[in-house]
Design brief:
Radius of gyration: 36 Å
Largest sheet: 4 strands, mixed
Number of helices: 15
Number of strands: 19
Strand content: 15-25%
Shape: extended
Distance between the termini: 66 Å
Strand order of the largest sheet: 4-12-14-13
Helix content: 25-40%
Structural class: alpha/beta
Length: about 500
């Protein structure tokens, strides 16, 4: 088939998609009529006779008391007619009216901050819709659109898959070219943190309709790397792994950017020196037993690529160790090691064959109070046991164990948001009279309105009118922990168990 230009591809995709869309709509109308037709035939249900005494019930207190204390139970037969009737006497217990709970906002429990950035530009719903005192129009201007105006139709997934399959199998268009046109309602291939249509199709049972031509056993291209492609597998895993000392885990909720692969390392030890370090053969096939190999071993391209990937990460390993990682004989690994990384004239060594010279090292001792190292307390999670219960100002946080001056009580956690989202959320928080936001740095604020821990219930206490001194027993401080700003609430005095944790929010909290 002759190649076609980009404009022709766009028109071809539009034409096939419109064709499949028309076929599906025609089938759906007929299929829906077929399913609804049996429901249009009514089946008469026998009427249930009512008690002749029901008309005699009046609203006097004696009748109400009798109805409350007695319940009539009627059993029905299979044809719907009453079979038997019995009366059950009940003991009425009048309970006291329960006091309403203190107002608060529910949130998802978290132990670490979650990066949010900005809220979705589509408004999910209008807050305080039945409250005339809230400025709905002004708050709506914070968003570009209303989410409920965009109707999501799952049928479009089925239609798009069928159109992509026909374009690929009938018109011989690569899936990449189909995706690049942007004509289909969904992207076929996944992008960072956004699964494509091919990935989504594996998570659901596809609708079987009359016009489908996709075989049941057909598999669409996967974004997952081949099991034989070691570099792609490592790149995919490494991208999700957070190397921050605060995290060291995949899918970190704070550092949402992808982690790139480190650049290839250069050898710092000559191969001849590495070989001299091997004292005994590793296993059958060790280079100490076989010796040099003249003919190249029969390795596939994937095998050679896997060894090169391992050498890029750690070139200064003996061939015996590389052989275990490659699942290949040691002498074969040595052959390709010489081929891929021959000894250079100059190695990446600062002082190859002489002692490192420099100034004599010295230590400067300082008097350190390790118990007041706020950064390490937050990093290690040395928090106090707390309890949330009713206090003088609604809900408060109370100690379940003693605390000393300088102790970390709890870390204040929540969503990391930008200024624009801080302003839009602030309108809602200001109207309800409860805000859970702390300023973190010049770019980010920490909001625990929707995600947080017990620290969100810590109450405010100002200065004493008589002495002018603060009455708080704790302070909220921003600490730089391994390059990450985090907020800790620290004790400014000794406290016994049962003491409520109180801080001074600061004047800026009440003016913004």
């Amino acid at each position: 088939m002759e190649p076609i230009d980009g404009i022709m591809i766009d028109k071809r995709v539009e034409s096939v998609f419109a064709e499949v869309l028309a076929e599906f709509r025609d089938w759906k109308v007929k299929y829906s009529k077929h399913l609804l037709r049996p429901l249009s035939i009514g089946k008469r249900v026998p009427s249930i006779p009512t008690s002749s005494d029901s008309s005699n019930i009046d609203g006097d207190s004696d009748t109400e008391q009798r109805l409350v204390q007695q319940v009539t139970v009627t059993s029905y037969s299979e044809d719907g007619t009453p079979a038997s009737t019995s009366t059950i006497s009940l003991q009425v217990i009048r309970a006291e009216v329960l006091e309403p709970h203190e107002p608060y906002e529910s949130c998802a429990p978290i132990s670490r901050n979650v990066f949010k950035g900005d809220d979705d530009d589509r408004m999910a719903f209008i807050p305080f819709a039945d409250d005339a005192t809230f400025d709905h129009v002004d708050h709506t201007l914070c968003y570009s659109s209303l989410a409920w105006q965009e109707d999501y139709d799952p049928d479009l997934e089925v239609i798009s898959l069928e159109a992509a399959y026909r374009l690929h199998t009938v018109h011989h268009l690569p899936y990449e070219d189909i995706d690049s046109t942007g004509v289909l309602p969904f992207k076929l291939f996944s992008s960072p943190r956004k699964p494509g249509l091919f990935t989504l199709s594996r998570r659901r049972d596809l609708l079987i309709w009359k016009g489908t031509t996709i075989p049941h056993s057909y598999e669409f291209p996967s974004s997952f790397p081949s099991p034989n492609n070691l570099r792609r597998r490592l790149e995919r895993i490494n991208a999700l792994f957070c190397p921050s000392l605060n995290c060291i885990e995949p899918l970190c909720t704070v550092h949402v950017e992808f982690n790139p692969m480190p650049p290839p390392r250069k050898p710092t030890i000559r191969l001849s020196e590495l070989l001299n370090r091997v004292e005994r053969p590793c296993e059958a096939g060790c280079f100490l037993q076989i010796g040099a190999v003249d003919l190249p071993p029969q390795w596939s391209e994937d095998d050679i690529s896997s060894l090169k990937t391992i050498l890029d990460i750690e070139p200064d390993m003996v061939p015996c160790d590389h052989a275990e990682l490659c699942l290949k004989p040691c002498h074969e690994v040595l052959y390709y090691r010489k081929l891929l990384y021959p000894d250079p004239d100059e190695l990446q060594i600062e002082y190859p064959n002489e002692e490192i010279k420099g100034k004599p090292s010295s230590l400067e001792f300082r008097d350190l109070e390790t118990s007041f190292c706020a950064n390490s307390q937050i990093q290690q999670g040395h928090f106090k046991e707390l309890e949330v219960k009713k206090s003088k100002w609604g809900l408060g946080v109370f100690l379940l164990e003693p605390a000393k001056l300088g102790d970390l009580i709890v870390e204040y956690v929540g969503e990391l948001i930008y200024e624009e989202t801080f302003d839009s959320r602030g309108e809602v928080a200001g109207h309800r009279g409860r805000s859970y936001v702390f300023g973190l740095n010049e770019a980010l604020s920490l909001d625990s309105s929707y995600m947080g821990n017990p620290s969100r219930f810590v109450d405010h206490v100002g200065t004493s009118s008589a002495s002018g001194e603060t009455q708080c027993n704790c302070r909220a401080l921003v600490r730089l922990v391994n390059g990450e700003h985090r907020i800790g609430i620290f004790a400014v005095k000794n406290m016994e168990a049962g003491t409520e944790v109180l801080i001074d929010y600061g004047s800026a909290f009440f003016t913004r």
